[in-house]
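An instance as discussed:

___
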Amino acid sequence: MRRFRFTPIVLAFAALALPLAAFAQSNGFVPLADTSQSPLISQAYNSGNLVDFVNTLFRMAISLGAILAVVRIAWAGYQYMTTDSFGSKSHAKEVLGDVALGLLLLLSIWLILYQINPDLLNLTFLKDITPIQQ
């Protein structure tokens, strides 16, 4: 099976996202959707501050990734316990290993950013970005 590499996509996204973030921050962040269903997103979205919005999305993405990983661990454990075939047990072990790697990546994102500078976790660096003058 061919594995997909995310590095070029992440670099391209970062190259496009930072200038757009500077433009949005300098012109005032204007929400385009109704977020009244979720109070956490609604509060950050309607604040008019891009930094708060991106910070909330970052925390929610880390939390959602951890919750989905725990659900996936439970499902793989269920598959491992209820099957007798060797192929299914090996697939469940492979899933458990992949999920453990994913959880380590989530934890390492937070740890690396915290060790470099704890303010990076608040994503306040977006406030200092100035738009390019044309």
In short: The helical segments are 7-27, 39-45, 50-82, 86-116. The two ends are 47 Å apart (CA to CA). Residues 83 and 108 are 33 Å apart (CA to CA).
